[in-house]
Write a structure and sequence with these properties.
Layout lengths: L8 E5 L4 H12 L3 E6 L2 H10 L4 E4 L5 H9 L6 E4 L14 H28 L3 E6 L12 H21 L4 E8 L5 H7 L2 H10 L8 H12 L10 E4 L7
Parallel strand pairs: 1-2, 1-4, 2-3, 4-5, 5-6, 6-7
Helix pairs in contact: 1-8, 3-4, 4-5
The structure holds NADP nicotinamide-adenine-dinucleotide phosphate.
NADP nicotinamide-adenine-dinucleotide phosphate binds next to helix 1 and helix 6.
């Protein structure tokens, strides 16, 4: 099975680091014209230096108006990966209102903002495909993930409603729900060897994932090979949620 995105334009948010960066690179290898959006210019500069055909866009998705205007000026987009997110881990009894607002703003509200602009264009041009990057944290209780988990639970619900409303316009919307993947974000919360052991003991495959193990399922869901898949929340968790 070969996936070829020649002639397609893909927007990846949060493409500066981690899963987003790897997905942007893998999409380029599949022939897509990739627009890599992120908020740290140095990450975008290094991405552009490594992959000169990639178009890089500096934008802070936390700002609704700035993001909307930036996305509106990108031109036609066929494939969208809503990947950008932030994670602050705190016990539920001391979780802070500012952290609630910032995580909901980037992890949920910004996805709605970007998707509204991009999906409207997809529908006008006859179709498209969107993948939202959710988390295992929306499907299973993880200590100190109270706000992050709530934000990803909201993203799962948003994915299903978008799939319902946009399906008739030939725009498919799906989500992937990874377990711990070795990136800057996860290493901030999972560097403690005891915590790592607790989690790995509950993953039947016995290990954390690599970003490319998320990028490939994203690419499959984006592609026509997944043409009848709409509204799914796909665990990428080595079996964690099966147990
Ligand atoms: P990461 O290494 O922290 O990378 C996230 C990227 O998103 C960074 O380039 C970051 O830019 C960008 N970003 C964050 N806020 C942004 C904003 N307001 N505007 C524009 N860009 C922004 O994270 P990751 O581990 O690759 O995670 C990617 C996705 O997978 C997220 O949705 C995350 O919730 C999800 N996920 C991750 C794991 C995991 O274990 N890693 C597990 C499950 C789900 P800056 O660096 O400049 O902030």
């Amino acid at each position: 099975m070969e996936i070829n995105f020649q002639g397609k334009t893909a927007l990846v948010t949060g493409a500066g680091k981690g899963i987003g960066r790897t997905t942007a690179i893998e999409l380029t290898k599949c022939g897509a014209q990739v627009i890599a959006l992120s908020r740290t210019q140095a990450d975008l500069d290094s991405l552009k230096a490594e992959h000169p055909t990639m178009r890089v866009v500096h934008c802070d998705l936390a700002n609704w108006d700035e993001a909307r205007s930036t996305i509106s000026n990108l031109g036609a987009i066929d494939l969208l990966v809503n990947n950008a997110a932030i994670a602050v881990c705190e016990p539920c009894l001391i979780a802070k209102p500012d952290d609630f607002d910032s995580m909901m703003n980037v992890n949920v509200k910004a996805v709605l903002n970007v998707s509204q602009v991009v999906a409207a264009g997809m529908a006008e041009r006859g179709g498209g495909s969107i993948v939202n990057i959710s988390s295992q944290a929306s499907m299973a209780a993880l200590a100190e993930h109270v706000i992050y988990a709530a934000s990803k639970g909201a993203l799962d619900s948003m994915t299903k409603v978008m799939a319902l409303e946009l399906g008739p316009k030939n725009v498919r919307v799906n989500a992937v729900n990874p377990t711990v993947i070795t990136t800057a974000m996860s290493m901030a919360g999972w560097s403690d060897p005891q915590k790592q052991k607790w989690m790995k003991d509950r993953i039947p495959l016995g290990r954390f994932g690599d970003p490319v193990e998320v990028a490939y399922p994203i690419i499959f869901l984006l592609s026509d090979k997944a043409s009848m898949i709409n509204g799914v929340l796909l665990p990428i968790d080595g079996g964690f949620t099966a147990c």
